[in-house]
Amino acid sequence: MMRLVIWILAGVVLGGIVHLVTVLVLPRTATQDAYMRIEPLTPVNAVAALPTPSPSTATLPFMDPAFAVAVCRYDLSETPLKLTAPVSQAYTSVSFYTRYGVAYYAINDRAAGRRLIELELMTAAQKSRLPDDEEVTAADRLIVESPTLTGLVVLRALSPEPGSMPVARGILAAAQCRPNPLEG
Description:
The chain has 2 domains: about 1-30; about 35-180, Immunoglobulin-like, CATH 2.60.40. It has about 180 residues and is of the alpha+beta class. The model has no long low-confidence stretch (mean pLDDT about 85).
């Protein structure tokens, strides 16, 4: 009887280890993650609009058809990026994801408090090379540190009614994600 309990316990522990390893490794081995789906549709370090989702042809999972969506697929290996996005009357958000889909920063139009969301995206090493300028405060310059060299910036603008979707798309078309070399 004791031998049976030990075998059952060993099976449960082994099953738990296999489950945990699978859950941790699967996101890194998936071949059709968000980054790979977007890669053929978007240039690097530039904003590109995503097509309107339908139930059978959504580029990304769980896309809301009430939002116009644009993506900047970034690569910080050469230089930091400057992101500017005008805000819509309804709602605008900007979310940052690593290459493997881990969200690390988000801001919306209400938090920005302006008619333009403007920030710089860089790695910690690039930020450490910034010159110390006492006249520039944190309120003047919003810097987002990326934990990885590559990733995605997802911009969303709400269209409160179907007729205003062209306006939301136009707002995202004015967004920019461009290289911004360090000064100094």
